[in-house]
Amino acid sequence: MSETPNLSSLQKEGEIFAPSAQALEKAIVTDFDALREEANANPPAFWERQARELEWFEPWNEVVKWQASPPKVEWFVGAKCNITVNALDRHVQNGNRNKVAFIWAAEEGEAVYKEKKVTYGELLRRVNQCANALKAMGVGKGDRVTIYMALTPALPIAMLACARIGAIHCVVYGGFSAPALRQRIEDSGSKVVICSDMGYRRGKRIDLKGIVDEATRGLHEVEKILVFRRGHTPIELHEPRELDWNETLDAQSPHCEPEVLDAEHPLFYLYTSGTTGKPKGIVHVHGGYAVGTSYTHKICFDLQPDDIYLCTADPGWITGHSYVVYGPLINGATVLLVEGALDFPDPGRWWKVVEKYGVNIFYSTPTAIRALMRFGEEYPAKYDLSSLRVLGSVGEPINPEAWLWFHKNVGKGNCPIVDTWWQTETGQFLIATVPSYPAKPGSPGKALPGIVADVVDREGNPVETGKGGFLVIKSQWPAMMRTISGDVERYNGYWELIPGCYAAGDVATKDEDGYFRVMGRADDVMNVSGYRIGTAEVESALVSHPAVAEAAVIGKPDPLKGESIKAFVILRDGFEGGDELLKTLTSHVRVELSPIAMPAEIDFVPSLPKTRSGKIMRRVLKAQELGVAPGDISTLED
Ligand code: PRX
Fold first, then answer.
1. 632 partner at 20 to 30 Å CA-CA among 300, 309, 341, 619?
2. Is the pLDDT at 14 greater than 80, yes or no?
3. Rounded Cα gap, residues 267 and 284, in angstroms
4. Would you say the CB of residue 420 lies under 6 angstroms from ligand 1?
5. How many CB atoms lie within 10 A of CB 624?
């Protein structure tokens, strides 16, 4: 993020989609503009109102305390709480003990599936047993616990058990390799690791315990390893360091008083990649995080009491933390956990699940949608998707092509698509519209109530409408990160780049209606002949061509233009790469976007380097092109 971007949005403004009658009928927020105005007139009062919906042991004496330099924030100052009381006890006491909290649709290998349902009452008892087991291992308030598990209900149980006793969970996605896991265990200083013995993916067994063995070899700081045996043949455990989950939990009482915690007590560390090699341990806390996630989850998805909610993210990522576990549970939702890949045993897997359980809210990623598009319309057409009411998207800009496909083939033209912009650092949605509000494909919409967002230049001056600049947040919000574990300098850096603002690291535009459009990360933006062009824009143009399934674009140094554009393209089945198609695609970008955005080179490739969460790692492509070291590739899938 060195210079002010000087791009104008080259992407054509798309259609506006008015809310469907179906969306209006169940709307929680009916006048989004009025609510935003009211909230922005006095954000602390607005957030205080949301906080009053939750349970606290002791109230706050100040809603928010913000110090600009060095940046330091506290929300609900002086309040005492425990997030698990809001996620569990409250529902059990309010007549929802037997409501289903989680439905687990498991992959069991060889395309055999099983399911398990866990009610709020059962969940609370198991969380308490796990919390008591952790206490017996010597884990207490402030201690860190690394969790490395397959997607089963045991994963959220382990997270909630840590929270119950004031320990800090550090979930590491089950797809990370041993060195990446070790780095995170060491950085967090975890004394206990909770893992699964194995997981399934596309019918194959993944030996998670083997990876934990390798990651913890010689790490004496790790005193205990609690193993959830998911496989059918129990693996051998080496006591006293290694303990069996079921045996250990069964021996404990199902009652465990929640630790009374300061609202600012850390809830978790979650590691995320930055531009440098070392992952950042983003720190979130009990109080504000509970308020920010639950409120946004409710209004952006119009959550109804009997909804079945499916978010396809793994709890190993922030989306899983905020919108699979905490937000939905605080709202008392029924959450579907779907294990396995989207195309196994066939690309109808998710639609089959939607039909079987009558899913009402489906929240996924543009990468997944594009992958599913590639398999054709016949898969969603095979299943009854009429239960769906609201669709969601997160993680990257959704290209209008994918948005329209999703809207037509999954939502059948009736379901609003809520595009949610946020980050590991922000903890909660910041830019998104609500289902009752008009949507523009490819745009996450406006800032949410209580959030002041803008697009500015390097000095912090708002840029002209439609011009590109840095996406910044000028207000504070309850679920914002509190620090970066062991690296306060890096934390401070978010407020130091642009005066008076939180710099998200994204480049964006804002249109005349106040709708934002994210062009990509500041480091994913190219400078071609003085024009800054979002890699995402060129990619969007490429994938709007019927021959293209996926595309990744990088800028290469060019002596004449500063940078030239190189594209890597995966073709749809039935298309062949060659000079003819190369010319066609180049002129397609020219027509769709602009002559300045035409790729100078296009490579047809069978796959793209991606993070395990599905994001294309352009950095790796660029390094490969330039013959330099790619930096941190611990998140690379393959
Ligand atoms: O560049 C933005 C992109 O993802 C980044 C945050 O990544 P991460 O912390 O991994 O969190 C992903 C899940 C919240 C942002 O800086 N991003 C996220 N959501 C969107 C998005 N870009 C465009 N549209 C979105 N809806």
1. 341
2. no
3. 6
4. yes
5. 13
User: Is there an atom of ligand 1 within 6 Å of 397 CB?
Assistant: yes
Domain assignments of the chain as residue spans, ordered by start = 21-82+265-521, 86-259, 527-626
Q: Would you say the CB of residue 424 lies under 6 angstroms from ligand 1?
A: yes
Lowest mean pLDDT among 5-9, 261-265, 397-401: 5-9
Q: Across residues 10-20, what is the average pLDDT?
A: 71
Whose Cα sits closest to atom 14 in ligand 1? 423
pLDDT digits (tens, 9 = 90+) for 172-204: 988 777 877 998 899 999 999 999 999 988 888
The CATH number of 21-82+265-521, from 1.20.140.10, 3.40.50.12780, 1.20.120.910, 3.40.50.150, is 3.40.50.12780
Does 423 sit in the ligand 1 pocket, CB within 6 Å?
yes
CA 407 – CA 398 distance, rounded (Å) = 12
Q: Do 21-82+265-521 and 86-259 come out as alike in CATH topology?
A: yes
Q: Which residues have a Cβ under 8 Å from the Cβ of 152 and sit 6 or more positions away? A: 104, 106, 116, 196, 228, 230, 337, 339
pLDDT at 318 over 80: yes
In the CATH hierarchy, which fold is given to the domain comprising 527-626? GMP Synthetase; Chain A, domain 3 (3.30.300)
Which of 312, 422, 480 best tests ligand 1's pocket when mutated (most atoms within 8 Å of CB)? 422
Q: Quick one: pLDDT at residue 273?
A: 63
Whole-prediction pTM value? 0.85
CATH of 86-259, one of 3.50.50.60, 3.40.630.30, 3.40.50.980, 3.30.470.30: 3.40.50.980
Instruction: Return d(Cα 321, Cα 308) in angstroms, integer.
Output: 18
Q: How many CA atoms lie within 13 A of 97 on its CB side?
A: 5
| Residue 392 near ligand 1, beta carbon < 6 Å | no
| Confidence tier at 274 by pLDDT (50, 70, 90) | low
pLDDT tens digits, 594-609: 777 889 999 999 999 9
> pLDDT grade, residue 11 (50/70/90)?
very low
The pLDDT value given to residue 525: 64
**Helix H segments across 461-510?**
488-496
CA distance 541 to 418: 22
Residue 88 pLDDT exceeds 60: yes
- What atom in ligand 1 is closest to the CA of residue 504? 16
